[in-house]
Specification:
Blueprint: H1 20-71, E1 74-81, E2 88-95, E3 130-132, E4 143-148, E5 154-157, E6 173-178, E7 189-193, E8 199-202
Antiparallel strand pairs: 1-2, 1-5, 2-3, 4-6, 6-7, 7-8
Protein name: Type II secretion system protein H
Pfam family, one: GspH
Transmembrane segments: 20-39
Length: 216
Amino acid sequence: MFQLKSRPWPPRRAQGGFTIIETMVVVGIVLFLLAVGIPSMSEWMMTNKAAASSEFYLDGLSLARREAISRNAESRIVFSPNAANGQLDWQVDVCYPVPGTPCNPNSGVWSTVAAPAANDPKGANGFKSVLRSAETLPDNDVLAPTLQPEGATSIYYTPLGWVDTAVDDRVTQLRLTPSSKYASVIPTSALAISLAGMPGKCDPNVNAHDSRACPP
């Protein structure tokens, strides 16, 4: 007689999986990709943060000039060191001149971050100073900001948007210089401020006859 043998259901399949050698190969490949990719990613992020630095300062310079023109008032931008990274915070203030009380560093009523200027035509709804922190920018041991001439910290604008040349020691250029470690990936750059109040990017390392050169 024939004997029927039962078959397992469902049918057994060969057990799959990684051997130790295969696992070590995969781990090795992953570690290699990380070793190659992480430095490149870090360099890319650092380069982008450095590029954002010039835009950060350009925004402040443009805002100061724009507020002077739009409000028919005088404005200023003041730079101060950021305690966290050595970059420069900036603050834009507005002042409305009145007879006998001009707007200059030693007189006039300037706006603050807490309140508009006392004689702002819009009263309590007037312009409050804009303060921007540079804490998101690279540390100054990566990219160091320098104001020129040495000792200058501010720029004053007339209601026409021109630089107020009556104010001494005004900033004429803001230079961003990378450390030697990053000099190969981050270029030296600068922002030059013309007497017309217009900020523009320039390259302090090229020949004076080059169109990219900074003004003397």
